[in-house]
Amino acid sequence: MHRFWEKVIKPVLIAAKPSVIVEVGSLSGKNTFKLLDYGKHCKAQCVVVEPAPQFDVELLQLIYGDGLKLMRQLSLEALPLIERYDVLLLDGDHNWYTVYNELKQAERTAVNMGTFPIVMLHDTQWPYGRRDMYYFPSSIPESMRQPHALKGIEAGKSELLESGGWNATVHNALHEHGERNGVLTAIEDFMRESPFKLKWYQLYSNNGLGMIVPDDHPILDVLDYILDTSGL
């Protein structure tokens, strides 16, 4: 997601002026560090949901103080504990069950807040737009898991490769497409059901970035310009 920072995420934050930003999926912190710098200068708190951060948490806590809140939990455990936020960035477990339920939790929080947040989602295109990936398959209910294997994938091929390929070290669904399979499928299912009036935006580079925005949000006045001029 960090590849979208300069041309999309940062301009959106400047226009939206969020008080609380939630990032799901930080890992090495490439996008997190940018969010924290933004928050420090613009008086926004960053809540980072990452069960296994690969950066010096104590050092960041010293630098950013209350501007950083780290939750070492899976997203579906952490999100119900966060009472309000203005922007939600989802780049964690790339599968239908997780993404769909992350959005449903955002919807429940929005009911209490009275407004739906801006939500940005990474990996809405290949390889995981239409294919589930599981870091820890046991964390997903068995009935919600696609048949999967520790094998790599290749663009243009639905079947997994016998050797090599993209992301061969994680559990990938055996096939692309079909019901309840992939990040984009989860978003479409959620959007079709949600009682909120929402707009959907899509960028196709860097594995895809999607954005869900309430249809009455003030940022809509500049969002088309931000996306059209991003070149992404």
Question: What's the CATH C level?
Answer: Alpha Beta
Largest sheet: 7 strands, mixed
Helix content: 25-40%
Helix and strand string, N-terminal first?
HEHEHEHEHEEEEHEEH
SS-based class: alpha/beta
Protein name: Class I SAM-dependent methyltransferase
GO molecular function: methyltransferase activity
Keywords: Methyltransferase, Transferase
How would you describe the overall organization of this protein?
This protein is an alpha/beta fold. It has a single domain (2-126, 179-228), classed as Rossmann fold (3-Layer(aba) Sandwich). The protein is built from seven helices and ten strands. It has helices at 5-16, 30-42, 57-64, 75-78, 96-113, 183-193, 220-228; strands spanning 20-24, 45-49, 68-71, 87-90, 118-122, 133-134, 148-149, 171-173, 198-203, 209-214. The strands form two sheets. A seven-stranded mixed beta sheet has the order 3-2-1-4-5-10-9, with helices on both faces. Strands 6-8-7 form a three-stranded antiparallel beta sheet, with no helix packed on it. Helix 1 runs antiparallel to helix 7 (220-228) and helix 5 (96-113) packs parallel to helix 6. The longest helix has 18 residues, at 96-113. The two termini are 12 Å apart. The model has no long low-confidence stretch (mean pLDDT 96).
Describe the SSE topology:
Blueprint: H1 5-16, E1 20-24, H2 30-42, E2 45-49, H3 57-64, E3 68-71, H4 75-78, E4 87-90, H5 96-113, E5 118-122, E6 133-134, E7 148-149, E8 171-173, H6 183-193, E9 198-203, E10 209-214, H7 220-228
Parallel strand pairs: 1-2, 1-4, 2-3, 4-5
Antiparallel strand pairs: 5-10, 6-8, 7-8, 9-10
Helix pairs in contact: 1-7, 5-6
